[in-house]
Design goal:
There is one protein chain. This protein has 243 residues and is mainly α. The protein has a domain of 164 residues: Serine Threonine Protein Phosphatase 5, Tetratricopeptide repeat. Helices cover 83% and strands 0% of the residues. The protein is built from nine helices and no strands. The longest helix has 98 residues.
Length: 243
């Protein structure tokens, strides 16, 4: 009996080996599955976090774009308001100068001063009516009114101003040929009129609008040379320096 015991034990151990090996194989498989699951979950979490960050960045970019668009709209409105205020300033200044002087525009040629219209009251009323149209932003109507005024009062006290404002009204309506004609009329007939420097600046603006960069630069330089102390010349210098 004692001799049979070792053999029985050996058989028992031999029969238990495959079962234990299978047990170890299942544990290893579960470990690997768990590792794969953890890696997969980690990748999913990383991807989700990246997508969330990307979505947040996109949202921030959209907000920034919206903010910049708002700033652009504000700046455009400010530019338009500045243009309107500048136009109103010149119109009011023109009106005050006429009331103070009570006669021809300062610097107007002597023949213009001598040749007064038959009805000074009608001349003043027509000029103020045209200015009112311009101030109201009715540029086409103002252009017609100033051109009619210039025809009716070719040697009137306010005719240089009429051509100047006609040029501005034409520039607003994109009638560049008419704008250049009226500005050039001021420079040719009334080169010493207070509106002459601004008329030359208006001529440069008309040339720039047509895309003629060389002519624009020449006119700006002529403005600086002929009217160096004027506000228009200061603007011309800034524009020349920026080119």
């Amino acid at each position: 009996m004692k001799r049979l015991l070792p053999l029985a034990a050996l058989l028992a151990l031999t029969s238990a080996g495959p079962a234990q090996a299978g047990l170890f194989d299942d544990a290893e498989a579960r470990r690997q599955v768990n590792e794969l699951r953890q890696e997969f979950e980690s990748r999913i979490e990383s991807t989700s976090r990246g997508q969330l960050e990307l979505a947040n960045q996109n949202e921030q970019l959209r907000g920034e774009i919206a903010r910049l668009r708002g700033q652009i709209e504000v700046l455009l409105n400010e530019v338009e308001s500045l243009k309107a205020r500048q136009r109103d300033f010149y119109v009011d200044l023109d009106d005050r100068l006429r009331k103070i002087e009570g006669g021809p525009a300062a610097g107007a040629p002597a023949e213009s001063a001598a040749a007064t219209p038959a009805d000074p009251a009608a001349e003043s009323a027509d000029y103020e009516a045209a200015l009112g149209l311009l101030k109201a932003g009715k540029h086409r109507e103002a252009l017609s009114a100033f051109e009619r005024f210039a025809r009716e009062y070719p040697s009137g006290s306010f005719t240089p101003g009429a051509h100047f404002w006609a040029g501005n009204a034409a520039l607003q309506t994109k009638d560049l040929a008419a704008a250049s004609k009226h500005f050039d009329t001021v420079l040719t007939k009334w080169p010493q009129d207070p509106s002459a420097p601004d008329a030359m600046l208006g001529l440069a603006n008309s040339q720039q609008a047509t895309g003629d960069a060389a002519a624009t630069r020449r006119t700006l330089q002529n403005l600086v040379d002929r009217y160096p102390q004027s506000n228009a010349a200061q603007i011309a210098r800034q524009r020349l320096a920026a080119r």
